[in-house]
Amino acid sequence: MRIFENIINHKINTITTDELLNYANQFEISINKNQASKIASYLRGKQVNIFDSAQRASIIKEVAKIAGPETAREVNKLFLKFTS
User: Fold this and answer.
1) How many domains does the chain divide into?
2) pLDDT grade for 66, boundaries at 50, 70 and 90
3) How many angstroms separate the CA atoms of 44 and 25, rounded?
4) Which Pfam families does UniProt cross-reference here (predicted)?
């Protein structure tokens, strides 16, 4: 199971704007290109573990500052789909 977590975390830590938009579309989550760009820039290189609820909460708080609370809720839904 640990390898699965590593793969997902690596993807989150290296995600591009287009990849984030693709995942959002795939999972029916509403974000625009500008928001995706800001979020992807924030996530790239952070080396976070979205399987750790404290780290995930911290990321979501930062996303709320960057793109607003509604977008943060949407991104959290996406993270929860990745981790379940």
Assistant:
1) 1
2) confident
3) 20
4) DUF2624
* Overall pTM > 0.85: no
Q: What is the DSSP letter of 1?
A: -
Structural domain span for residue 11: 2-83
DSSP string across 4-65: HHHHHHHHHHT--HHHHHHHHHHTT----HHHHHHHHHHHTT----TTSHHHHHHHHHHHHH
What is the C-alpha radius of gyration for the chain, rounded to an integer number of angstroms?
11
pLDDT tens, 4-56?
Answer: 999 999 999 999 999 999 988 898 888 899 999 999 999 988 888 999 999 99
8: its two tokens:
């997902």
Query: 67, 81, 63, 84: which is closest to 24 by C-alpha?
Result: 81
